[in-house]
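Hi R.,

Here's the chain you asked about this morning:
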Amino acid sequence: MATLAGLIVGAHWRYAFLVGVLPALLVLWVRSSVSESERWREKATVAGGRASGSFGELLLHRQWGPRACLGMLLAAVGLATFWGVTVAGQDLAKELLLRNGVAEKEAIERAKFAYGFIETAGGGLGLLAFGPICVRLGRKRAFALMQLAALIIVPITCYLPKTYWQLLLLLPVFGFLTLSIHAGFAIYFPELFPTAIRATAQGFCYNFARFFSAAGPLLAGVLTTTHGSFAPAIATIGSVYLIGLVILIFARETHGQALPD
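And here is the predicted structure, written out as tokens:
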């Protein structure tokens, strides 16, 4: 839907922002329709004048603090590769089309289609598939499988296609493998922490990771300038998945275990 809106508004980007207000209104419905769980109401109480679920309670705890830091680093890998790798599918398509003699305006439109519909469709399937994979393999193995597969597909997508249609065949797989782990954060992070600090911990893991993930697009810009091409830059940033595999060595498996309380 976002891609369709982008194609309709074209260069009039201000209208795209106006369209973006509509899904944001769903938040109002969510906040008014979803109530806090009874379990949370029982656990998240004020004790000693200090609200339960604070950052201090999370980060200074000898058990929850290390888990939060590992979760944040795992999310940083996902966010850095999202901004530096996944969304770069559009740049790969545009660069390939220009190299094959397509006019720039046409190349931009066809690149939008390649990323917004073809790659995103694969990414959506990856997000939907990650849950069942977690159930089958466990959380750590699911993350490891997808990150290892992403480590392989990224250089293949960057260097193998010689035509636009060859790239279109690879982009759904590229999107599936590079985007799927983001669904895993919503599954894995809540299982690492007790009820009273669960929301705080999830917010810390995902949102503090954004500071580190900012390096992704910055590095992509530097490497693209250095190499004169997007492909080497994206392939280099794809190596960040190796860091994710190392992080998983120290992470805790939560599959089949009771939630900490």
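One quick note: Residues 54 and 200 are 7 Å apart (CA to CA).

Cheers,
M.
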